[in-house]
User: Which sequence fits this backbone?
């Protein structure tokens, strides 16, 4: 050490501190890392690391040699190396002085490590020892527990055996091979009344004591001896005691393993049981007697399906004796030989095994020995032994063969009845005294129920059903309802009622017939009712009546119109002559002439008459008209001033036009007639102050609407309504409203043609009219005129004809009425025209052909004897191309205009006409650019 | 180190040390550690110093009870700012990082407040936990300790740093020794021959 360089006190302190501190560290790893971290700083040391491994080497530890670059300091204690501290050197010389200190340090570490190692080893050994002690302790505990358990089980087993022995109802005796008594129980002692002095292990006195109690002691001893001599034998027999008791004895060898060690005797007192068995046998005999008196088959089957008991009735039905039947299989003997036997037997076996439930009731067919089949209704119960095991069945069967036949017949009858009821469209229901017992589907629908279930819900009595309805508008008087009457014996062949469902308000009409149902004794037991929904029928009848009334009315109107029209036509011609001649006479006379005034009055009267005939023609729809497309609102508006004047200042005229009113095609003068007539009527219905309202409206009616509103026709219309708040009309007045000459006005105030004219005009224009009126409530006339839909036509507005001019043209005038011909000829000539008159079409054609010069216009009547005006034109026109035509007629019914309406390009003048009108019309026709070509 | 003639009692040894001594206490026994910590705090308060404790295991309740045994009201002293107690994690690892600069500022401020409040001196006892090896900045622990040695020369806060030898590795303990000029061994403050002067240590580190 002295040859080595010494270290400074500081370094020594450091090493000392390391030595001091290292011992405080908790484990070897920490100590080694602490040391190396400290040694890192030593002079000449580049790095200090450690290698931690424990090596036990009995031959001595291997030292890894150090070199100049590396010094290895093993930490060794004895033969155990704990680790190496390896110093990697940069300067071996500089490090050299540290070597012994590091070695000492490592020795110190070795001591510490060895201590730690020993401590750990000791702890490990201690732990191992503790663990082993603990394991052994546990093993011992388990062994003790198991031993205790085995002892407890043995004790329990012995106790159980003793308990079982004592709990036994039998007296038990165990006798060993050497004749010593091994064990008996208290029951044995009590059964045999063993006295206390015999309570030893000696068998002989006990046997003697027992033998003395036997009724047949020798037989008893013989059997005992026999069993003792044959240790392997077992036996069971009965012992009859002298006091009357009966014991059942059971004996068998007792073995341990295969060795017989004793004999086991068991005695049971069965005296009571035997007595009961005898009682049961007696009871059974008595029961058999009862069974034989029962009028039902009583049969008991054992678990194999064999007959173990059958009564007299059973034998009788099966036509076999009891002896024949007992013990035989029920299934093969008593059931018809069909495929079901195996199935029935299979079911029965399952029943006996408890695999299926017993059927308490069923019906089947059995066969007797003579081959007759019997329908039997069975009531069954299972027979159980005292353990509850199934031992067989007990069945009671009733022969229902006859009853079944009756039921089948009844069922067939009922099926037919049901089929009949179901097929009926009439509602049928059958009731007893209060309940509905049968009804068909038609009954359900008739009463407006959803279905049968709905009907049956709380409605099992017909009274309940009635509560759902009112009949003829009132609650049903049940006693007066036909079914009640039928139940009292009355036959109601036809009754008609208007029914109404209270809940839904649905109405219908039903016809009913009711009859009582009587039983075979003639007693009323119920009633049957048949009902039919006749709502549609009633409606149809009503509609038919309405139609008939309408037809009658129309026919009446048509005939009246035809009559009026015919008269008016001829009368019109006469008026034309009167007017024409009067005009000419007026022209010929001076106004100062007294005759002039008379002529003027004649002319006025003739004009009034002409107006009357015009109205008649209008009513008859034979008024010649020129329909124009017009706006009804404009037409009404233009008339308002005149209408106000017409109705007077005490009555307000209200006017409500609808905007965008559809156009109509109607003769404007007819529209004027309509309004004037309706307003005059309205005025006359109001006494004093009142109100008249005119309104228009677009209206459309579909078929459904019209079906429910008689008089309405499907389509689009404009409605022109004139209403008043006057006196209104009653039903009688309304019925004759449109008849010509029917009037409610005072004599002289009305012609009776006003509404007839309105009616005719409306009909002529394909419209219809409705009137609504109530006495004292006023009246509303609603006229519906068809909407005009040809937009190509312009709407006609008010305008007047061309100015009157005279002319010089040549006119071919044709008129079959000579007075009219003469008068018209005179008028035309006065107007400057040259006239070629002809009284017949043939004459006209002849004159036309012979005429040398031009004929400018043909003026012709329409209806003439030889040919009508239209045909005449067809003859004349080819002779004079460019000829114009003007028709004259009082009406145009079938000739010129179809249905009285002029074709647009046909020129027409209505008779009678004035000279002025004729002059204007002639000029208008002659002014046309297009000649007549066809009609 | 500043010329500081003032000595202070550490409580757990009769020996007095100069104010501003920076020392480490390597312990393996918790009771020993707790005993020295409480005594250090009590003696400081009793000498009119301001004391601070940074520890995860020592609670105010424990200090309160210890002080009470010696007739001192912890709460009153706390109200007077004479003593404070905070968990290590809140002081050293605030925001989940270890920041030597922040810690040095904290110590510096502590000293300044001690002066401002008129205390005779200041002392700190802190328990470092192994968590430092896992938080960001934890690798600067030795730098921090070395800089503390520098700081206390100017601002003589007496500081005891506690390290549990059972929780730090041996190498770590050795490194701790290298940055504390004094160490407490068996309750005695001794010169640490393994200490490396901060100027040298910090140079080695950089």
Assistant:
């Amino acid at each position: 050490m002295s040859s080595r360089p010494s270290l400074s006190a500081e370094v020594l302190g450091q090493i000392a501190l390391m030595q001091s501190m290292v011992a405080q560290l908790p484990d070897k790893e920490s100590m080694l890392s602490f040391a190396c971290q400290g040694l890192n700083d030593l002079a000449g040391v580049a790095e200090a690391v450690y290698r931690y491994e424990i090596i036990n080497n009995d031959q001595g530890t291997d030292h890894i040699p150090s070199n100049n670059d590396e010094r290895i300091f093993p930490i060794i204690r004895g033969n155990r190396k704990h680790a190496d501290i390896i110093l990697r050197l940069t300067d071996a010389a500089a490090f050299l002085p540290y070597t012994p200190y590091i070695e000492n340090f490592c020795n110190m570490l070795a001591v510490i490590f060895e201590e730690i190692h020993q401590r750990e080893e000791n702890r490990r050994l201690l732990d191992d020892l503790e663990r082993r002690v603990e394991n052994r302790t546990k093993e011992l505990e388990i062994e003790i527990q198991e031993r205790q358990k085995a002892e407890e089980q043995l004790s329990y087993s012995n106790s159980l055996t003793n308990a079982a022995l004592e709990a036994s109802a039998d007296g038990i005796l165990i006798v060993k091979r050497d004749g010593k008594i091994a064990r008996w129980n208290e029951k044995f002692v009590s059964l045999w009344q063993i006295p206390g002095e015999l309570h030893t292990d000696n068998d002989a006195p006990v046997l003697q004591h027992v033998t003395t109690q036997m009724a047949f002691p020798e037989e008893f001893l013989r059997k005992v001896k026999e069993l003792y001599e044959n240790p392997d034998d077992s036996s069971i027999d009965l012992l009859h005691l002298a006091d009357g008791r009966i014991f059942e004895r059971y004996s068998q060898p007792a073995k341990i393993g295969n060795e017989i060690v004793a004999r086991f005797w068991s005695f049971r007192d069965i005296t009571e049981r035997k007595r009961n068995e005898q009682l049961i046998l007696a009871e059974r005999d008595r029961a058999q007697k009862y069974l034989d008196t029962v009028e039902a088959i009583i049969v008991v089957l054992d678990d194999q399906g064999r007959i173990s008991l059958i009564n007299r009735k059973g034998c009788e039905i099966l036509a076999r004796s009891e002896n024949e039947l007992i013990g035989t299989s029920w299934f093969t003997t008593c059931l018809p030989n069909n495929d079901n036997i195996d199935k029935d037997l299979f079911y029965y076996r399952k029943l006996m095994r408890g695999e299926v439930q017993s059927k308490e009731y069923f019906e089947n067919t059995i066969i007797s020995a003579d081959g007759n089949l019997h329908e039997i209704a069975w009531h069954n119960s299972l027979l159980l032994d005292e353990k509850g095991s199934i031992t067989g069945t007990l069945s009671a069967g009733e022969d229902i063969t006859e009853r079944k036949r009756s039921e089948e017949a009844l069922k067939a009858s009922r099926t037919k009845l049901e089929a009949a009821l179901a097929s009926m469209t009439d509602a049928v229901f059958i009731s007893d005294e209060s309940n509905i017992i049968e009804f068909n589907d038609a009954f359900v629908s008739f009463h407006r129920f959803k279905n049968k279930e709905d009907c049956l819900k709380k409605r099992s009595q017909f009274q309940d059903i009635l509560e759902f309805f009112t009949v003829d508008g009132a609650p049903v008087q049940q006693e007066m309802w036909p079914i009640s009457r039928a139940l009292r014996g009355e036959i109601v062949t036809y009754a008609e009622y208007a029914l109404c469902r209270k809940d839904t308000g649905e109405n219908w009409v039903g016809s009913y017939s009711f009859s009582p149902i009587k039983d075979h004794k003639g007693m009323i037991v119920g009633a049957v009712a048949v009902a039919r929904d006749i709502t549609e029928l009633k409606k149809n009848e009503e509609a038919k009546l309405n139609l008939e009334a309408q037809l009658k009315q129309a026919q009446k109107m048509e005939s009246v119109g035809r009559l009026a029209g015919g008269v008016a036509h001829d009368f019109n011609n006469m008026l034309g002559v009167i007017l024409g001649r009067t005009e000419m006479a007026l022209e010929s006379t001076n106004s100062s002439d007294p005759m002039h005034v008379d002529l003027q009055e004649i002319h006025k009267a003739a004009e009034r008459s002409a107006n009357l005939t015009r109205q008649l023609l209008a009513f008859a729809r034979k008024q010649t008209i020129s329909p124009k497309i017009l706006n009804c609102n404009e037409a009404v508006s233009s008339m308002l001033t005149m209408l106000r004047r017409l109705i007077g200042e005490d009555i307000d005229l209200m006017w409500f036009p609808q905007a965008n009113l559809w156009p109509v095609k109607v003769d404007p003068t007819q529209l004027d007639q309509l309004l004037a007539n309706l307003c005059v009527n309205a005025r006359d219905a109001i006494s004093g102050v009142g109100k008249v309202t005119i309104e228009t409206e677009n209206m459309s009616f579909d078929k459904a609407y019209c079906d429910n509103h008689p008089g309405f026709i499907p389509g689009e219309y404009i409605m022109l309504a004139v209403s008043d708040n006057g006196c209104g009309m009653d039903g009688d007045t309304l019925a004759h409203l449109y008849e010509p000459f029917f009037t409610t006005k005072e004599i002289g105030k009305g012609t009776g043609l006003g509404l007839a004219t309105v009616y005719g005009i409306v009909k002529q224009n394909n419209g219809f009219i409705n009137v609504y009126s109530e006495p004292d409530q006023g009246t509303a006339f609603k006229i519906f005129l068809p909407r005009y839909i040809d937009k190509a036509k312009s709407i006609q507005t008010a305008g007047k004809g061309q100015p009157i001019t005279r002319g010089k043209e040549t006119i071919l005038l044709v008129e079959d009425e000579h007075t009219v011909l003469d008068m018209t000829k005179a008028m035309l000539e006065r107007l400057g025209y040259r006239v070629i008159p002809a009284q017949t079409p043939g004459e006209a054609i002849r004159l036309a052909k012979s005429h040398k010069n031009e004929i400018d216009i043909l003026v012709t009547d329409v209806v003439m004897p030889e040919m009508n005006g239209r045909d005449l034109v067809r003859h004349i026109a080819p002779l004079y191309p460019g000829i114009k035509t003007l028709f004259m007629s009082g009406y145009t019914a079938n000739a010129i205009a179809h249905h009285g309406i002029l074709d647009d390009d046909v020129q027409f003048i209505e008779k009678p006409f004035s000279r002025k009108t004729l002059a204007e019309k002639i000029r208008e026709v002659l002014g046309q650019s297009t000649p007549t070509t066809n009609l | 180190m500043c010329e500081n003639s003032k000595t202070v009692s550490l409580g757990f040894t009769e020996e007095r040390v100069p104010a501003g001594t920076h020392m480490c206490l390597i312990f393996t026994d918790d009771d020993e550690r707790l005993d020295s910590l409480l005594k250090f705090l009590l003696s400081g308060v009793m000498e009119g110093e301001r004391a601070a404790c940074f520890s995860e295991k020592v609670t105010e309740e424990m200090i309160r009870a210890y002080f009470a045994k010696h007739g001192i009201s912890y709460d009153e002293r706390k109200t007077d700012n004479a003593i404070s107690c905070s968990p290590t994690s809140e002081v050293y690892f605030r925001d989940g990082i270890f920041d030597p600069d922040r810690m040095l500022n904290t110590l510096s401020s502590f000293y300044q407040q001690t002066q401002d409040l008129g205390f005779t001196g200041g002392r700190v006892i802190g328990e470092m936990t192994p968590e430092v090896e896992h938080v960001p900045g934890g690798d600067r622990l030795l730098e921090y300790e070395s800089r503390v040695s520098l700081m206390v020369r100017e601002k003589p806060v007496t500081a005891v740093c506690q390290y549990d030898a059972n929780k730090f590795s041996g190498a770590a303990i050795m490194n701790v020794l290298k940055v504390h000029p004094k160490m407490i061994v068996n309750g005695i403050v001794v010169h640490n021959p393994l200490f490396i002067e901060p100027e040298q240590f910090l140079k080695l580190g950089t």
Summary: Chain A touches chain B at residues 10-11, 13-14, 16-18, 20-22, 24-26, 29-38, 41 (CB under 8 Å). The two ends of chain A are 167 Å apart (CA to CA).
